[in-house]
UniProtKB/TrEMBL annotation:
Name of protein: UPF0246 protein FAZ69_30145
Pfam families: H2O2_YaaD (PF03883)
GO cellular component, as recorded: cytosol
HAMAP family: UPF0246
Family listed: Belongs to the UPF0246 family.
PANTHER family attached to this UniProt entry: PEROXIDE STRESS RESISTANCE PROTEIN YAAA, PEROXIDE STRESS RESPONSE PROTEIN YAAA
GO biological process: response to hydroperoxide
Amino acid sequence: MIIVLSPAKSLDYETPPHIKKHTIPDFADDAAELIGELRCLSPQQIASLMSISDTLAHLNFQRYADWSPRFGADNAKQAVLAFNGDVYEGFDAKSLSAADLDYAQSHVRVLSGLYGLLRPLDLLQPYRLEMGTRFANSRGKDLYAFWGERITQALNAQLQKNKGARVLVNCASEEYFKSVKPKLLDAPVVTPVFEDWKGGRYKIISFHAKRARGLMARYAVENRIDAPEALRSFASEGYAFVAEASNDSTYVFRRRVGD
């Protein structure tokens, strides 16, 4: 079983990693190719392409300039420790043991616009490039075209190596999961959905749902879960599995905190 997550826009390179073990991204050469094309953009073009402020555009212009095909402790950090958004606050990798992170290395993957597919301990150099960015490149009109079937093939290869159920658990956003081609995947897909009670009904609230995806990934890692059915016992921060709202491919979790 493999769980896929989205990356985060926010990055933390200030906090020292609590482990030294690391790996190099499998698609580092592809990332270098993209960086070469991104370096042709001016800060103004980056701002327009990504709909970001001039300040952020200049920051990422410099990141592309600084990016190196050499990955090391001086210019990179393990992906799961560098990402710092809602999902990763839930996953809280900095408090996981080395053994937990070793397990995650085989069972968790992060989808990335620049790096394609990352293992938790893959070294990550600072960047911003969301998968949905319509960045025309040498392979096509956008990043989905750039990555093609590569991400799906890499997931299939890892699924074949892993013991336990051959299932992909989708804890990524729609934008990122579009980079995976389910019809070419050698495994069924199970998608957890997290809903909160608000305004008289249950609904997906983005902030809470992102955090819950990270919490679920952590739950799977800490409990060494290798079959999706075991995820139904997930009950962190008040969420509970709702059988009548779920099916074999969608697991619905709900919570009602106050009214």
